[in-house]
Design goal:
Blueprint (H helix, E strand, L loop, with lengths): L3 H23 L7 H16 L5 E6 L15 E2 L6 E10 L1 H6 L5 E8 L10 E7 L13 H12 L7 E5 L5 H10 L2 E5 L3 H10 L7 E7 H14 L2 E7 L4 H8 L7 E2 H4 L5 E7 L10 E3 L2 E10 L4 E10 L23
Parallel strand pairs: 1-3, 6-7, 6-8
Antiparallel strand pairs: 1-2, 3-4, 4-11, 5-8, 5-9, 9-10, 11-13, 12-13, 13-14
């Protein structure tokens, strides 16, 4: 990094990228085409990131170059004139939510010093995320009961008052059953892995105390940037599907290794910007009134040691070059399911 003054400016530039992605993709909310929603967000986000004075390398993106023409893993973003940074993008966290008009879809960019963000081609990881009060009181190797008991004790609350969020997938059913039998509260969510992980780490602004379960590996790395800035804690272990043992060997990764927060984000200088696409517990979605778009965003950053909520009003004429703003949509994004 080249200094905190540059870093502060970069935070706001990344915010512009998530705002643009949310505004442009928001015009397609509820139309049932999640690939079109995603493509609109990708187009807008990449356009703004190209103007940012960083030497950025996409390490978490839309996929490999042959799968995604833009914001692919390994793509360079920014002007090249500025700090060297790893960039993790999720133009729409919750594409299915957005396409159906559901709650909680957001646009996200996270970044840290070059070479500091974990990357793997393995699709899933088992995660535990907590806020500052639970830091040092979780272990991915312990049972769900022991983890909830430990966090409840650290927070000075009974187990029955601990709420655990899990992605609603069959692979998490056993954890859900055990948590309910143990007496913890369970909150299931259909999509929005990143948003719910951040909510769990926010603590004072959240009704979720922990996130557990198997979800996207790339989403886990994006979330880790925010968790680190917020002073929370996170542990993961890769969850291999059939045939992924070879992938792990090629990458030199031990799939049984416990991945700590410092493994996922090795730098203490990190940040995350997110803008709501549809209304949710985390952020309000985009609304359009008389030629303007209204957004709600958050910047979580250790670069300036701040967490800022940002309400924006944007003239839609500034986004007229994007097809979706004019009621058109094209799609060439490969579908990704968490």
């Amino acid at each position: 990094m080249k200094g905190r003054r540059i870093d502060a400016r970069v935070e706001l530039e990344f915010l512009r990228a998530t705002e643009a992605a949310a505004i442009v993709s928001g015009k397609l909310v509820g139309r049932g085409d999640k690939n079109a929603v995603d493509q609109a967000a990708v187009d807008a986000m990449r356009s703004v990131l190209g103007e940012v004075d960083i030497d950025g390398l996409v390490v978490i993106g839309e996929g490999e170059k042959d799968e995604a023409p833009m914001l692919y893993i390994g793509e360079h973003v920014g002007t090249g004139d500025g700090p060297a940074m790893d960039v993790a993008v999720d133009p729409i966290d919750g594409t299915t939510l957005a396409s159906k008009g559901g709650h909680g879809a957001i646009s996200v960019v996270a970044a840290a010093e070059r070479g500091s963000l974990f990357h793997t081609h393995i699709a899933y990881m088992d995660k535990i995320i907590v806020g500052p009060a639970g830091r040092g009181h979780i272990s991915i190797e312990a049972s769900v009961e022991d983890n909830v008991r430990s966090v409840a004790k650290a927070m000075g609350r009974p187990v029955t008052e601990i709420t655990v969020a899990l992605l609603e997938r069959d692979r998490n059913n056993e954890k859900v059953r055990r948590l309910r039998e143990f007496g913890a509260r369970v909150r299931l969510f259909g999509d929005g892995d990143v948003a719910n992980g951040i909510i769990a780490a926010l603590e004072e602004r959240s009704r979720i105390d922990m996130l557990m379960g198997i979800g996207g590996a790339t989403e886990g790395v994006v979330t880790a940037c925010a968790v680190k800035c917020l002073g929370g804690d996170m542990q993961c272990r890769l969850w291999l599907r059939e045939g992924e043992e070879e992938v792990a060997r090629e990458e030199g990764i031990d799939p049984n290794k416990v991945l700590t927060l410092d493994d996922l984000c090795r730098s203490d200088l990190a940040m995350l910007a997110a803008t709501g696409v549809t209304d949710g517990e985390f952020l309000q979605g985009v609304s359009y009134v008389r030629g303007h778009a209204y957004t709600q965003s958050i910047i979580i950053s250790s670069l300036t040691d701040t967490m800022r909520m940002v309400d924006g009003k944007h003239d839609l004429r500034s986004f007229s070059s994007f097809p979706s703003v004019n009621g058109q949509a094209t799609s060439h994004v490969k579908e990704h399911v968490v």
